[in-house]
Amino acid sequence: MYYEYGIDIKGLDDWEVSLVKVVGGFIWLGFSEQEPHKMLCISADKETIFDCEKGTVSPTKCVFDENERTAVCAELKDEIINICGQYGGELPHKTAQGEKLSSVKREEFKYGKTLVREEVTFTVKNGSSFLVYEGYAPYIYGFSPDGNYFVFATDGALTVLKRKQ
Q1: Cα(109)–Cα(115) distance, rounded to whole angstroms?
Q2: pTM value?
Q3: Is residue 125 exposed (0-12), middle (13-18) or buried (19+ Cβ within 10 Å)?
Q4: Beta pairing partners, 74
Q5: Three-class secondary structure of residue 153 per DSSP
Q6: Within a domain: residue 35?
Q7: Is the pLDDT of residue 98 over 80?
Q8: Are 159 and 20 spatial neighbours (Cβ–Cβ below 8 Å)?
Q9: pLDDT of 46-76, one tens digit each?
């Protein structure tokens, strides 16, 4: 299924698109605990910081450990950032404000190999649920530590939603 923002945002009335970015060679991402509106994104080519509130992206340099799943960069005050992505780890799937994510995975044999498809459902504060994604397994998705940002990364794009003020 094709979605304009990589995900279907219909029904997510308390949320708005902050940014959508193609990230070639995506590997890891992680939110700052000290500044939860900032997210570090690590790809095969470069490292960037997404300001999820402003919808901007700026280059950075960081040191990261794939085994420990941590990264450090000066722009984030040398905070140890827990990173996750297609090779492990995960982001929170619940917010203190009451939203939650759930998914159903299924395998299908196609193109001579077994592929994983996934349906991701976003439940809003009032309990209504909306199917936001149906397709091949995304790399990573979840909420920022403060629950004010939602990120969804596939091989096509990385989408960040922010809570409306």
Answers
A1: 6
A2: 0.95
A3: exposed
A4: none
A5: strand
A6: yes
A7: yes
A8: yes
A9: 999 999 999 999 999 999 999 999 999 999 9
Report the C-alpha dihedral over residues 134, 29, 47, 31, rounded to 10 degrees.
Answer: 130
Q: Please tell me the total count of domains within the chain.
A: 1
- Neighbour-count burial of 20, counting CB atoms closer than 10 A to its CB (0-12 exposed, 13-18 middle, 19+ buried): middle
What whole-number distance in Å separates Cα of residue 95 and Cα of residue 82? 18
Q: SS3 of 148, please?
A: coil
Q: Domain range spanning residue 99?
A: 15-163
Classified as helix, coil or strand, 76 is helix
60 in any annotated domain: yes
Distance CA 89, CA 82 (A): 9
Q: Residues 71, 17: contact at Cβ < 8 Å?
A: no
Residue 130, CA distances (Å) to 65, 101, 121, 127 in order? 36, 10, 5, 10
When pLDDT is averaged across residues 143-149 and rounded to a whole number, the result is: 98
- CB-neighbour burial class of residue 68 (10 A; exposed 0-12, middle 13-18, buried 19+): exposed
Distance CA 21, CA 33 (A): 22
